[in-house]
């Protein structure tokens, strides 16, 4: 399955069902905000899902907590929590980095 980061010059990587999105980003040398060390405590690894949410696993208990607190919207997921659920090669998930969590040393094309 492909993951495309729209506001990161359309960078596309392949993702694995054994890894979270955050782990797959790291394996592909893509820096991503993660203030709590990928423990699901802070929401700084938030990503906006523009397309392909149906190819991602259901909300984790951690994500459900943040949804209930209104800290995650319907089109947002935590990269440290979510994994793909269907890895057929022709599927694509398109995401973007929210402005709030963009890293200063990376050029985004918002």
From TrEMBL:
One of its GO terms (molecular function) is iron-sulfur cluster binding. Residues 1-101 form the 2Fe-2S ferredoxin-type domain. This is Ferredoxin. It comes from Raineya orbicola.
């Amino acid at each position: 399955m492909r993951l495309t980061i729209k506001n990161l010059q359309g960078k596309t990587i392949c993702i694995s069902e054994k890894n979270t999105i955050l782990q797959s980003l790291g394996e592909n040398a893509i820096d991503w905000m993660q203030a709590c060390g990928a423990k699901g405590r802070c929401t700084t690894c938030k990503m906006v899902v523009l397309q392909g949410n149906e190819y991602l696993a259901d909300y984790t208990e951690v994500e459900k907590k943040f949804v209930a607190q209104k800290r995650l919207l319907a089109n947002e997921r935590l990269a440290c929590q979510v994994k793909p659920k269907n890895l057929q090669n022709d599927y694509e998930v398109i995401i973007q980095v929210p402005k709030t969590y963009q890293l200063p040393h990376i050029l985004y094309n918002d």
